[in-house]
Amino acid sequence: MFRLLPVQVILAAVGTVNMIVSSYFASNYVGTEAMSAVGLYGPLNMFFGAVAVMLVGGSSILCGEYLGQNRQDKLQEVYSLDLLLSVLAGLLFTVIIIFLAVFDLTGFLTQDTTVRPLLNRYLIGQAIGIIPLILSSQFASFLFIENKGRITQLAVLVFIMVNLVLNYLFVAVMHMEAFGLALASSLGMWAYLAVEVWYFVSGRSHLRFTLKKPDPKECANLFRIGLPGAMINGYQTFRGLIVNRLLEVYVGAVGISAFAAANNLLALFWAVPVGMQAVSRMLMSVAIGEEDRRSLTEVMRVAFRQYIPLMCAISAALILLAQPLTHIFYKDPSDPVYMMTVWGFRILPLCMPLGIVCMHYVCYAQATDRQRFVHVLTLFDGLISVSLFTAILIPFIGMNSVYIANVINGIVSILIIIIYATKMNGHFPRTMDELMVIPDSFGAGEDEYTEISVRSIDEAVSISQHIQEFCLSKGIDRRRSYYGGLAAEEMVVNVIDHGFAKDKKDHSVDVRVVCKDDEVILRIKDDCVPFDPVERNHLTEGGDAASNIGIRMVYSIANNIKYQNLFGLNVLTIRI
Question: Are strands 519-526 and 560-566 parallel, antiparallel or unpaired?
Fold first, then answer.
């Protein structure tokens, strides 16, 4: 988990650069009111992000399923549908935001007559970047499918450079104020998108956009699968609107400015828990697919024993550095916004260790399809707790109520998890299994699975007999036992032939066979380069009927085949 963590933290941190750059130029070159505009736009940006997450989540899961099944036609259909929906959504939101700003219909965001004109100009600039904001997320996912993730990394670097240069040019040199802040960000997003799109329009990509009439069922599936993952962003949209209104009424625009400054910079450090969540989600997914109870609980134990103490240390450092961090945005200690921001850096970091528990539990609950509980937990975590406790406390303690409410939110989320586990178990949870409410029926016993590690062709050709004998000993019929051994041998040999030779590294293929509930589950995992979809199609759809007959046989006999590339590991799960 710690080997995979740094890369995921970096990927999560990249998305916060835009907010930090905008906040820096807003506070240092425009003023507190401009920082208020940045903070007021935050909930809308969260909403657009929720739409992007929903489309990415639905399309990536569907593409993964169709890639595993080698259904190339459906893969192309989902790709085209996702891009079409992204463009339509982007156009719709762009028109709405410009309309609201031009006709000064932004009263639902702020009633402050000083801030509102700045906000309207800021919205017009941000509207220009909504389409690339949504589309770039989709292309990042598709580049991953095409095994071209480095293009996304290049796009990120281009975005950061363009954003910095244009912010300096528009805000510090040309004094375009709020509009310049937003325009720099939007043009940066277009540059980001252009780098990603170039690969797809160059003719080198396997995925092709078509204007074929979309299948309504696929559209419904995309929304159904992607919506749960986007709900937390949706809840946070409404939370942001509520908190901003409370701050405006009880503290004023200066409160929104302070909260935006502290929140935007701390988002850089929230990348650590987000990276932790990404790693754990991957490992939980693999463990659940393998019916591996021990590994599933170990992931959660690492979160409690290593991740939380690490996050406590980071939080303590942030609290000690509260004033130096505030100086990035505000220099005058006599200005009310200065101490409001300092207290933000002193209190908000306390949320981070608490957030790790909630984030990991949401991952686990989603992976085990406990959607009702996920909705309850994310509703409280994303909306109810912070909004409610801020509303209760702000008349008495003012600005700090927002910060304290965020900490209380973390405590409430943990209490909800414990209450749920207590109810499901019938008693207070005493073990990690009970806290996670893992069903007694989950997990393959030691006598229900076997594991084999393969490093050469000679070893690969011998596993078929071993797997066949194992399946027969567990009561699997002779036909499926034979197919299980043959399928494993064919796919392992294919990995060795097409993966081991791609570089000079030492590789291995790990095969896990589970015989449970009269089902054979094969998990084949390797650390070779991701499997090329074009090559996969060639192997399974070749014109020569005699070529690659074994691999094509695997696709014909399997009940389900799922392929994932998870942080450098190819994971193929076959159910027979």
Answer: unpaired
